[in-house]
Q: What sequence folds into this?
């Protein structure tokens, strides 16, 4: 699912990883982190909905945080790179579950993987 979250970034400013001998760099890769842990809301009433019973029970695309590499912050600005939509559900969690990940985004084409295929 994470590979299908659209990222707000101009692809013309990036090289393909294959143009850089397959080595990730600031010229061909964007890095995001996500760190979300679900906990029980102790102040929620017994008849409450799941959204009220639990804190951080849904991981959204807005939880992806861009980590600038090299000179990317100078090139794109501090908050320029982010998911296009903030409300895409990435995962649903229950108390005791968490997601901690470092995500590497690279430029690609639909011939390699359907996630890079443009949708009309």
A:
């Amino acid at each position: 699912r994470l590979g299908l979250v659209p990222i707000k970034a101009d692809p013309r400013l990036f090289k393909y990883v294959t143009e850089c001998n397959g080595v990730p760099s600031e010229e061909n890769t964007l890095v995001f982190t996500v760190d979300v842990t679900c906990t029980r809301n102790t102040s929620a009433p017994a008849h409450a909905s799941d959204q009220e019973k639990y804190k951080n029970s849904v991981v959204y695309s807005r939880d992806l945080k861009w980590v600038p590499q090299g000179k990317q912050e100078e090139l794109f600005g501090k908050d320029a790179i982010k998911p296009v939509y903030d409300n895409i559900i990435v995962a649903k969690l229950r108390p005791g579950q968490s997601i901690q990940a470092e995500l590497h985004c690279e430029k690609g084409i639909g011939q390699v993987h359907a996630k890079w295929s443009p949708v009309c």
